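Hi W., the iron/sulfur cluster complex you wanted:
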Amino acid sequence: MRKDLYNWKYQKVGEKVIENLKRKKHDAYLVEKKEDVVPLLNTIMKENSKVAVGGSLTLNECNVLEFLRSGRFNFLDRYNASKDELENIYFEMFKADYFLCSANAITEDGKIVQLDGNGTRVAPMIFGPKYVIIIAGMNKIVPDLDSANKRIEYISPMNSKRLNFDTPCTYTGKCDDCLSPERICIHKVIVESGVRHPGRFKIILVKEDLGL
Ligand code: SF4
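Structure:
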């Protein structure tokens, strides 16, 4: 597809998703490119706040981890933690001011869909941190929940392989609905709405493809 048509499509779909996320009482932002994410975070996040992240390629691609390591935040850095420290971080995350992660899929009508293995991404997303900031590329946008499920089925083997988990899909590229102890598809969560805590979720949608 021509680049200008591609941009036009992303703008049109992006605006629709943002409108529906706002209708569901989330804060939502549409930005042009991954380089716009950190400046926006700079305006949203308060200095010296406690911050945690869920595992995400997108955060890396947008230089968010570097931003959080700037010394301006109390960053619970899961990537520079020993095994014992990591266990502690998983519990401390619930007391964070901000929890940042990406999404596995966002439907055009504004539902956020996450699939998780040990639950350390979906649990603080549901409960605990004052704010949840989700950063997602346009490749995460799907028409509906059926498409979200298909997307998740498609990307899970890739994620399992990327993380080098000992699951059938790591070796075959296909889901076997396995009972492996390292299964990454355990908890599927759909955030239907933010009406109970308006503005707790802040979704930054980037008009590029990011992460898996
Ligand atoms: S259920 Fe098992 S085989 Fe299927 S995608 Fe998840 S980890 Fe892979």
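The two ends are 21 Å apart (CA to CA).

W.
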